[in-house]
Design brief:
Elements lengths: L6 H22 L6 H14 L3 E5 L2 H11 L7 E4 L6 H8 L3 E4 L22 E7 L8 H10 L3 E5 L7 E2 L2 E2 L6 E5 L13 E5 L2 H10 L4 E3 L2 E2 L10 H11 L2 H19 L19 E4 L3 H10 L29 H9 E4 L7 H20 L1
Parallel strand pairs: 2-3, 2-4, 4-5, 5-8
Antiparallel strand pairs: 1-9, 6-7, 8-9, 10-11, 12-13
The structure holds pyridoxal-5'-phosphate.
The site of pyridoxal-5'-phosphate (PLP) has 15 residues, from helix 3 and helix 4.
């Protein structure tokens, strides 16, 4: 079976340095908020071009803590996309605020900046923009609306570490950026981990305090926080993997280029847009016979996946928001047609050739009918 990601093959490449780093942490006796975590915060901040990095427990907590640091809570409305992983909107509800969705662009599946204004009210405080699948959202336009209406911008860059937009890396364009190091992400740990980045000293101090029980000095608590820290083992692993991130992102782009070259004339391949880099956390195609293709690939030992089958406004958990089918037609159509193909840095040409030829076979067979 060709998997969606091959974490084992990636581990084989880096086994020795990773084992050594884990041994070092194990013997150091320092497991939480130690020197590896501090070094990772420094290196990730420098990699993305931010002043500060704060290691946290996972990407969801990164988003939650970003909202908390911006003092967002009950009565506030936060604009976001309905076509993303659940966590993006979940955290808005977790702080007691209300998610307000806007539809996406057909070409990139990212929030459509032209649809933001009509959703702004006196209660709107911020926008959570997602760089979906690794492709930058239309940041210039989004930042312009945010500035006009005095809204904060949180970047959910969980799928897009390293992606460039207009000479900057995503996560550093808005007020605060959030990253996930979930194992299958483009920079993945071997467990949960995440990071918040910002150029704002006061936001940095707030997130650092909130992630550690609202405390900067042991047993002195200035606010109600949470326990969400990036542990030393994960930091040690990420410090090693970060060295390979650019090489791995390049590999992803090469694989994507080949998929597009071979499949573009047969189905809807991802759009590459100037100034909006795509680092291909996912390579998603679109076609009417999506489910039949997935079944056909499965029968031929090829994995595929649907990100995401149900837009957030139609999730049961958000019934209380009173959205309906038809409210965000572009997101709904995408959810019904999209299919992610296997993509990972260690994918061989043979494997990719097999995937491409099977997709061609499926489409030719269908065309004969
Ligand atoms: C993975 C992901 C998250 C959540 O990250 P975790 O580390 O799994 O908590 C949030 N938003 C998006 C868009 C993601 O892809």
């Amino acid at each position: 079976m060709i998997p969606m990601v091959d974490l084992k093959a990636e581990l084989e490449l880096l086994k020795e340095p990773i084992f050594n780093a884990l041994k070092e942490v194990l013997e150091s006796g320092q497991y939480i908020l130690g020197s590896k975590g501090k070094e990772l915060e420094k290196q990730i901040a420098s990699y993305v071009g931010a002043t500060y990095g704060i290691g946290v427990g996972n990407g969801t907590d990164a988003l939650y803590l970003a909202l908390r640091a911006l003092d967002i809570g009950p009565g506030d409305e936060i604009i976001t996309t309905p076509f993303t992983f659940f966590a993006t909107a979940e955290v808005i509800a977790q702080v007691g605020a209300t998610p307000v969705f806007v539809d996406i662009e057909k070409e990139t599946y990212n929030m459509d900046p032209l649809k933001i204004k009509e959703k702004i009210t006196d209660n709107t405080k911020a926008i959570i923009v997602v760089h979906l699948y690794g492709q930058s959202a239309k940041m210039k336009e989004i930042m312009k609306v945010a500035k006009e209406f005095n809204l904060k911008v949180i970047e959910d860059a969980c799928q897009a570490i390293g992606t460039e937009y207009d000479g900057k890396r995503v996560g550093t364009i808005g007020d605060i950026g959030c990253f996930s190091f979930f194992p299958s992400k483009n920079l993945g740990a071997y467990g949960d981990a995440g990071m918040v980045v910002t150029n704002d000293k006061s936001l940095y101090e707030k997130v650092s305090t909130l992630r550690n029980h609202g405390s900067q000095i042991k047993y002195i608590h200035s606010t109600i926080g949470v326990n969400s820290r990036l542990d030393e083992f994960q930091a040690a692993i990420l410090l090693i993997k970060l060295k390979y991130l650019d090489v791995f992102l390049h590999k992803r782009k090469e694989i994507a280029k080949k998929y597009t070259l071979e499949l573009n004339s047969l189905l809807k391949a991802p759009s590459i847009i100037e100034n909006r880099e795509h680092t291909f956390h996912q390579y998603c195609i679109e076609l009417d016979e999506r489910d039949q293709l997935a079944t056909f690939l499965q029968k031929n030992d090829i994995s595929s996946a649907i990100y995401y089958p149900i837009p957030l406004h139609l999730q049961e958990a958000f019934n209380y928001l009173n959205y309906h089918k038809g409210d965000f037609p572009i997101a709904e159509i995408a959810a019904s047609k999209i299919l992610a193909l296997p993509i990972y840095p260690t994918m061989t040409f043979e494997k990719q050739d097999k995937i491409i030829s099977m997709i061609k076979k499926f489409i030719e067979r269908k065309d004969q009918k």
